[in-house]
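[SOLVED] Need 3D model of a three-part complex

Original post:
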Amino acid sequence: MTTTPDKTDLVSVTIDGIQVDVAPDTLVIRAAEQVGVQIPRFCDHPLLAPVGACRQCLVDVPDAGNGRGFPKPQAACTLPVAPGMVVNTQATSEVADKAQQGIMEFLLINHPLDCPVCDKGGECPLQNQAMSNGRGESRFVGSGAGGVKRTFPKPINLSPQVLLDRERCIVCQRCTRFAEQIPGDPFIALVERGAQQQIGIADNAPFLSYFSGNTIQICPVGALTSESYRFRSRPFDLVSSPSIAEHDACGSAIRVDHRRGKVMRRLAGNDPEVNEEWITDKDRFAFTYAVEPDRLTYPQVRDEDGSLRPASWPEAFAVAARGLRAAGSVGVLTGGRLTGEDAFAYSKFARVALGTNDIDFRARPHSAEEAEFLAAHVVATGPEGGSVTYTDLETASTVVLVGFEPEDEAGAIFLRLRKAALHHGTRVLAIAPFTTRGLRKMHGTLVPTAPGDEPAALSSLLGHADHGLDARAVVLVGERLATVPGALSAVAELVAKSGARLAWVPRRAGDRGALETGCLPGLLPGGRPVSDAAARVDAATSWGVDSLPETPGRDGDAIVAALLAGDLGGLVIGGVDPHDTTDPAATTAAIAAASFVVALDLRASDVTRAADVVFPVAPVTDKAGSFVNWEGRVRTFDRVLANPASLPDLRVLAGIAEEMGTPLGFRTVEDVWSQMEDLGPWDGARATMTPVAPTAAGADADSQGLRLATWKQMLDNGTMLAGDKHLAATARPAVARVSRAVHDACGPTVTVTGDRGSVTLPCEVADDLVDGVVWLPASSTGRGLLADLASPGSRVTVTGGN
Amino acid sequence: MTDVTGSIDTLTPVLTQDWDAERSWTLETYTARGGYQALDKALGMAPDDIVAAVKDSGLRGRGGAGFPTGMKWSFIPQDNPKPKYLVVNADESEPGTCKDTPLMMASPHLLVEGVIISSFAIRANHAFIYVRGEILHVIRRVQAAVAEAYAAGHLGKNIHGSGYDLDVVVHAGAGAYICGEETALLEGLEGRRGQPRLRPPFPAVAGLYACPTVINNVESIASVPSIVANGAGWFASMGTEKSKGYGIFSLSGHVTTPGQYEAPLGITLRELLDLAGGVRHGHELKFWTPGGSSTPLLTAEHLDIPLDFEGVAGAGSMLGTRALQVFDQTTCVVRAVLRWTEFYKHESCGKCTPCREGTWWLVQTLGALERGQGNEADLDLLLDQCDNILGRSFCALADGATSPIVSSLQYFRDEYVAHLTHGGCPFDASASTAWAGALTGASTS
Amino acid sequence: MTLSTETRAELLEIAARYPEKRSGLLPMLHLVQSAEGRITPEGIETCAEILEISPADVSGVATFYTMYKRKPVGDYHVGVCTNTLCAVMGGDEIFARLKDHLDVGNDETSEKRPGDQAQVTLEHLECNAACDYAPVVMVNWEFMDNQTPQSAVQLVDDLRAGVEVHSTRGPRLCTWREAERVLAGFNDGLADEGPAAGPASLVGLGIARERGWTAPEGERSPRAVDAAPAVPSEPADAPRAAAETDDGVAEAAAVEQDSPTSKTAADKKEAD
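Solution:
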């Protein structure tokens, strides 16, 4: 926790005649902000280490606090306050004003006059500060024989996405400092020197960082631009709306800039508690999926001839209601993109309209152990209740990562962990099969663990001489751990015995909200156990119904099995990609086997093509709502675009329910909010977890082949990455990570074969890969590993690729 | 004896003492002439006593800035558990400066002995000699001296049975004037771009590898053995009140006998010119630099200022590295200043705006003036550009860039104007060359 | 990778000289130049890999320092000092003459004509710390003191023709690549070649010897032990000291036959 310094700890300084008390070590440039003086600056950035390069922030310091002044103007961005210091900025000092004007003049002599065509024009710190702190006329062009500006061919690609215009660059080093200090991707650097100094990359080594777009945003001139946005619009034509990123469970604040109903770009918002001022490139650039040509724009119903035909909303509601009634028992599968409000609607729709607890948001491999773990340890926790927060990561003694690769799966956590490790001494331990690039950047330590052996690895941390945990430790559990029997039980035991704190990090933005709103067979909204009669009554009362179904429902896999077995007739499915599920073939077959399928989706897919009624639903830009991030923090956002034809899932479900004669009592997001507020979190007893024993070590020792380790890379074949080819070109290539021995025996291209098929791809050696393991990216090839290869943790064989 | 200042000779060879000896660079010669005896004496002293002796001697840094060497050493926090380092700044690159290069070529063991004693004094077990890469034979000689010193037990483990260990690495630079700036040098030594670091922290607290580090010039370190051997009082008996000891004065340019003259600080250019046979025959002194191109130009009116830190400062310049570049009346000052300015532009590291952009612009403004383009208002613009650079940049490089411009405008403004009225340079450049010595001067119009 | 395993091993060896391996980068890049004739992308990648830093960081270093060349350098790198003092003393003329003679621009390499044994790369240099020998030319970073346009033309002609050339204050000239290897810290055994000092380096000492000038005697002068003649403590010793040192000066000066500076220095002495 940050503590507000005692009044007595403060340092008193006088800036432009105004006395102000600031924390010790505050830089003068920021102390000045507190008295309302904006000292012009370029290289300075509050989240980057001071560099003092641009010299724009020169101020006069007649008294350094010791009675003596500095003979020369000082850079306010590198000068910490001292008690009694007197500072005169451009507001009161001619010396400071002239110094600043002189620097501005130097910056401008070589800066091109292409503001009218520059992306930054209109939101450019150089442009703005040249107006406020520069002279009106150039002395450069009139001096001597007439000044000759430095020129460069422009622009050059630093990566497939990020371009550099060297003429505009003022080499403030914000971008290179960001790359090195924040994500640890120093693939851009200062090259050349003197007047030729510029930002550059090495030959054949582009600026491939998951966080590269931040450099564009913090560039104080128009030197860095993106292929995606370059020349697309003018800042003053854009409307900016704050929002929350939908690509992961981080809850990162973003700003969506749009023009005439179209999103033009996205920027990082500034939320010191969450993502600070950084977002991933996925959060920044992956938004065009919503305007792909396959976007659904009207409801469809299956015609008598078997084809889907357009339908009016009322007709579609009626057909869906009729079909679901006729189908008898119906299951509900939701995907990971739902807002909390939409998830609440599915949860209520299942219980009230369909009368079932057969609902599961986990459109991915999952387990009953996981459901119990979530009910016992995760649901209905949040920062206000003392859950683990981003800030806690910075003060943690140790952070254990298990089933979780932050750089790929939760970028904001990765950045915060790196900051914690570099600046606060937090030790990062990863229970994983090899040291990833991300782990290396967090200066982390690997606890080498083959898939399936996580329970033993977790247990080994108890009382471990080097890796022992204490109450200041945090265990971050990824959703992938659900696939390892006994692993989540081992986590529960570890935190119980060590006093460490725990947080669960799902991969998708909507998962935590779906958990909180009861999109699980055993949970109602607010963490109410279905098995608890009082909890059911509580919810039924709020919802104005007599009772809620008390039979514990089927989970996702069981719903699939029941559809295939004919035990379930109907299916409501929203935003699920069968290829993400435990058994893609089974899921696809189940959809086909279902007697009646209602699909809610953004874009046409195999699911919508197989459905009986298809409803288009609003993308996240078109609706208000909230995501609950991994901390349990509710991240509410407003609608960005006004698109009356674009309905959120909750409105569709409300329409169907009304036709079914079981109205849900809401039609709008605001209605849902009031229902959620009315219901509130469960204050009764939490569900408890029955520990599951791990699979005995070596139980499959006789099995042939290697164990398959896998997770999704941040940039892969995911459907929400569709539409930005420049972003896609920055994805890490799909390679298998193998041991040296496998590489030498089978490389450089390998074919990996599992019980569902084979995947051929190049391989690279992972030096410390645990014996008997091969790692592949989960969704960077074909239909993804679940469909094409095998389940995570299962045995696969590796052979030479050709 | 040591206390009679009046009896000090005009030239006082100490560092240059062995340069004319047969195979002077070898350990054999050095030892035969008493080398490494100061080391034995030092190893018998308490390190703090060596620091005190250097402090008491009044030795001030010979790399240009003149910071008291002993005081620099005493800033090393001895309660800091990190390793301490000594780094020798042998990146001699200031235009006009050519003293460390012959010293290392002829007497590399004097430097090595100084390194060992100095490292012992600050409790460093690792020292680095950062030699600019462009002086290959000097590097060979220093490398060889270090190898000989290891073989003789002057370096390595348990030196002379004292229990003291020291390793020395000779590090070749790769072409960057800025690495003479001590924090830029550390960057170069750490395998980075030679761009100056933010201070504080100062190197004494967080220098090489963020450890306490002393960085000293070659001549400073090479002076240490003589101070240890002869005592602080001996050293202080030479020189002037605040500028003690001897130093190498490098005369170059239009003098009859350019070369190295080791003398007590405080000698005058007139005295040195007398020794060097005066300005070349038939010519007269026009301007000179007291300590390299970064020190403001002086003229014949400054022939009698004492060449010590205070004396030169009193004349509006700096002692610098005692690099006395002498130019006679055939030399066009605008051409000279333009060339220096081009040098600063070339060597600007690029980190900060005023230096990177300012030197770029200065070259253009000066270049135009040299060609006779522009007008007198450009002279004021030039001064204003300098005003916007001086004291605004990250390090002193850009300050140095303004020195020749501002000082030349102070003394030779008319000559700038002459370029404008003449429509170009009124001087005959060939008259200034070494082989034009017999010719008469330029036809100043 | 085109770098040999030997070069790789030597790169690792350089990195191991330092408490932190990144310190090895400057000499490592010198070795890359020695092996490859320039800084190559492969060399950058290899250094990056060994030091576990990004290729961009290595590139940033390789482009900062002027001794690193991205274009192939000839067998002999001929640098003409054109900083103010040397330029004024004739460096500009020398540089202009060489450009014309070699038909190259700055930082360009001469054509290899029939019969040429070697190629020369011409570059103008900033101050190379030899101002008392102005105008100065450097060949592969060895001093060629007190040059004239004529001597410089002869120099490059000799280099191209394969004639053995000695530095005026150093050894027989080796190739640029061999020189780069020394800069990487690998001894070539030439340290003992060449004089201790050139004539200009010795003028002050020579005058002191002549006039019997010395530093005062200290508590214990280390030089007094075996070098008594060189440190006369009594003025009466001065003539003897001067006589002895004159030989030293003459010997050193003899290495530089044509140096105008040494000639005038010698004249000066005779006049005295």
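Edit: Chain C is about 45% helix and 5% strand.
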